[in-house]
Structure formats: C-alpha cells, structure tokens
From TrEMBL:
Alphabetized UniProt keyword annotations: Oxidoreductase
Organism domain of life: Bacteria
PANTHER family tied to this protein: (3R)-3-HYDROXYACYL-COA DEHYDROGENASE, SHORT-CHAIN DEHYDROGENASES/REDUCTASES FAMILY MEMBER
Entries under SMART domains matching the protein: PKS_KR
GO terms assigned for molecular function: oxidoreductase activity, acting on the CH-OH group of donors, NAD or NADP as acceptor; quinone binding
UniProt name for this protein: 3-oxoacyl-ACP reductase
Residues annotated as domain Ketoreductase: 7-186
Origin species: Bacteriovorax stolpii (Bdellovibrio stolpii)
GO BP term, pick one: fatty acid biosynthetic process
Length: 243
C-alpha cells in the first residue's frame, strides 16, 4: 500500500485475532507500531514477531492510566489510529443489566471518542493530516438478537466516523469505519460446527472471513490509495449484509 512505510500506527485490541493480523499487515508495510491491549500472554509473542519499531502498551482502554500512556506515545507522533478494541456482554433486552450495557458502551464507544480526540489533536497540530479508523460490525446495519448494547455501539461508531470526517476534513484527517462480518478469529473457531456452518451460510461467499481480510481493509483505508475516502463504512462481510 502507498504511504504506510514509516508511518506511526496505533492499534487497540492488538494482541490477538483481527488486531494481531492488523499489526502483522502494517509491520509488513514498514509501519512503526504502537500496540495496545490488556495484559496478555501474547505480549512476549508480539515482541518476537515485531522486534523493531514496536511499542506495547498494556492496559484497559477505559482506564485513565492507559489513556494517559497512549496519549504520551501519541505526543511523539501519530499518523494512523485504528480503534479496533471491542467487547461483547450479550443478553436479551429484558435480561440485560446496567453493568452489561455500561461496560460495552465504555469500551466500544467512549474509548473511541477519547482516543480519536487525542489523536486528532496531535494530527492537527502536526499539520500533516492522518487517518482514523473505527471497528464497526455488520450488526450495526441489521441488529442482532441478544446484542442491544453491542449493536448500538457499532451503529454509533459509524455515525461517529461520519461526523468526525465532516469536522476534521479541513485538517486533512480522514475518518472511516470497517464493518466485519463473521470472521474466523480463534474465539469464533471454538464455536460448535453447527453454528459455524450457519455463519458461512449467511455469507454470499459461503465462507467465514479471515482476520487478514479485515487487516487489508484497515491498511487500504489508512493508505494513500484511499486519500479521497472519508466518512464511509467499508463492509467486509462476504455479502452477509445482503441477506
């Protein structure tokens, strides 16, 4: 991809699954990585995978100390922010607790607001522009049983991307979202075969996506190849949204 070499790229939720695949893709493109995730056994693996040009911030993106650590790194420069971190706390509406609602909102919406604001401030001051990308989901478009909280946050980040794009365009900062479908992450692969088959059936391409598919979308939107794309949501779902 054009323009990713030596770019300083921040990726949240980077230790496994889509986040890790994204780190691998940007590292291969020559980017300098700042990876953020909860304390994890994969941390040592990541250091081995990315021996050069990688900083790891271990912490919870809803906590002030983690946000302060990220902002301190952003002060050194930030070209790309990928708000990939997200959680689920599923329950039907009548069984969902306030704690389940608040936890998902905190990670999937509030942390994105805070990190995007911090990155945009640094990007604007530097005067070189930049790219901010939010992780949405196909459930933002059609909802999902037992996911009132999650669906709301994913629809919210699409709206946030569009609004931020309008506000930050004059500063050459592009803001977009990526909406994955059913992706074969380690967690998904552990699901029963019957459930996996159902997921594959929903996609027009009749297969699950791979983490690398989402990483490729992030890389494209962050690159100079997408220099005239902002305020959009790129669906990477194998046609799941087509119904």
């Amino acid at each position: 991809m054009k323009g990713l070499n030596n770019k300083r790229v921040f990726i949240t939720g980077a230790a496994s699954g889509i986040g890790r695949a994204t780190a691998e893709r940007f590292y291969a493109e020559g980017s300098e990585l700042v990876l953020v995730d909860m304390p994890t056994l994969e941390q040592s693996e990541l250091s081995a995978l990315f021996p050069n040009k990688m900083t790891y911030i271990s912490g919870d993106v809803t906590k002030a100390e983690t946000l302060d650590a990220i902002k301190a790194e952003m002060a050194k420069g930030v070209d790309v922010l990928i708000n990939n971190a997200g959680i689920t706390k599923d329950a039907t509406l009548l069984k969902m607790t306030d704690d389940q609602w608040d936890a998902v909102i905190a990670v999937n919406l509030t942390s994105i607001f805070k990190l995007s604001k911090a990155a945009a401030e640094v990007m604007k001051a530097a005067g070189k522009g930049g790219s901010i990308i939010h992780a949405a989901s196909v459930v933002a478009h059609y909802g999902n049983f037992g996911q009132t909280n999650y669906s709301a946050t994913k629809a919210g980040v699409i709206a946030m991307a569009k609004t931020m794009a309008k506000e930050l365009g004059k500063d050459k900062i592009r803001v977009n979202a990526v909406a994955p479908g059913f992706i074969a992450t380690p967690m998904v692969k552990k699901m029963p075969e019957k459930v996996l088959a159902m997921m594959e059936e929903k996609a027009s391409l009749r297969r699950l996506g791979e983490p690398a598919d989402i990483a490729a979308a992030y890389a494209f939107l962050a690159s100079d190849d997408a220099s005239y794309i902002t305020g959009t949501c790129l669906n990477v779902d194998g046609g799941t949204i087509l119904g």
